[in-house]
């Protein structure tokens, strides 16, 4: 676990961002490090931010972990992707779960975003709120897509690469190591989900992100392949990115950036649907041996 943490730190915190900033600086007209602190005043910074983020994710969460798995653990990457039965049907169900899950946990999202701390934690609250606001500002700038082409780039950077990298690290590496060390899959799933949420450094989305990480963890455990949680992760991020694009271009009135909870009747309905769909997926993998295909 310490080796994995060191690997992620070196790749995602040091090498990846430095390489990304270096490459982005080659075409960015200005002081990139300085302008990142005030992105609203620099409209040309969007491509530089997307470039930096994509390289940091590619290097830190995909290339470095893959090297670790192959060179240190001496395991093939293919072990994370055994053959499956009814793959397209499963992925369709995963999309349905993704939609119902978003609505079902919307009260938790609203509660977490508006959480107030006691007076003795006032300094932490100020720090957490400032960090949240800064991340929201960067996200808003990075998702300001002027065309469908920009949207496609955004989907790769914000949805596809994080889905592959984060699931490889948090489910493929952390969850498997926790399970190997404790023998308790539930402890392994929730411990990995906690780290998954914590590493985003966004406290005002911490609880919903833990639940999302746990959802991905159980999908991986039941299916035995990273393909399923990777797709679920991609769908979750991609849905948000596409809906932001559609809302800002006034194509839809649905605003996913509004953290207000859904009406209680919709929450209850989608909670029931989420539980039912997850039970169906669990039953599917109980009836079908892992590592089999049509």
Can you tell me about this structure?
This protein is mainly alpha-helical. It is 74% helix and 0% strand. It contains eleven helices and no strands. The protein has helices at 2-27, 32-37, 46-72, 87-104, 106-113, 122-142, 148-182, 185-198, 206-223, 227-248, 264-287. Helix 1 (2-27) runs antiparallel to helix 3, helix 3 runs parallel beside helix 7 (148-182) and helix 7 (148-182) packs antiparallel against helix 10 (227-248). The mean pLDDT is 91.
What attributes characterize this protein structure?
single chain; 294 residues; mainly alpha; 11 helices
Task: Compose a concise summary of this entry.
With about 290 residues, this protein is mainly α. Helices cover about 75% and strands about 0% of the residues. Helix 4 (about 85-105) crosses helix 10, helix 4 packs antiparallel against helix 11 (about 265-285) and helix 9 (about 205-225) crosses helix 10 (about 225-250).
